[in-house]
Model the fold of this input.
Amino acid sequence: MNKIKLTNSLNIKFTNIPENHFDQLHRTFQLSFRNYHTTINTSHKALKNRFNRLGVRLSQSVAAYHNEELIAFILQSEGVFNNKKTAYNAGTGVLPEYRGHKISRSLYEYAFDLLKQDSFEQCILEVITQNIPALKVYNQLGFFTVRDLICYKAANVIQKSHSKINIHLQKLENRIPEWSLYQTFFDFAPTWQNSTTSVIRNFDEEIIIEAHYKSDVVGIIIFDPDYGSISQIAVHKGFRRKGIGTQLLRAASAFIVTPNISIINVDGSFADANAFFINNGFKEIIRQKEMIKEF
Done:
């Protein structure tokens, strides 16, 4: 790989990403994440799915161009986090041959100026803890760590489990999900990627299985069967340690078409949640930090 030698006279242009540059962005995305710390599906379909799920808009995303080539990008989406207008960083990449020239830092500073003009109050992202160069840049840019996150993966073979109470598992069909009820089961707020808002955006690709005790919903699992990814799994606090969560995992595994099941961004400070996945055969694959910069 040949490194690009940059000089002060090099003409690098920062701008929003035009809608018709998706294919060029996809190429840069693939090359940027080719030798990443963890495996990322960089197919055209997967990137489109990422845009849809996370609410990415090219008009709000920014890129660096050199000689009309898209060499770096920051994908961004808009939402509300902790009651503040928030920009979510859905991915940052720089072509390998352009690294080491502080392009990402300059691109962030450009993006921050635009976000401030649009009255954004903060920017949020997740970064892999092993990615020391990125962590250094984010700290220098004024980001601070909100929480530590753990990502897990398991073979799609969940051991049999019998519930200690009589429950009925039901795939949700022809009925509106009880989102507000589901959220009462949570110990911690999901990160942006697994938030209820993101699940709703991706709803056509998701399956919901509910655990019913008598006439009440006491547990749920929401997942994307094509990618083997769990978006949310939670059990009512009064019905835990009865095997319901494991039964939900096993029910989901029957629909998942991939050889592995994964869940990302489990809050590391909640021991019971992490123990649940470990006890069901999940292995830690990476750790991340959720970081925020306030404007």
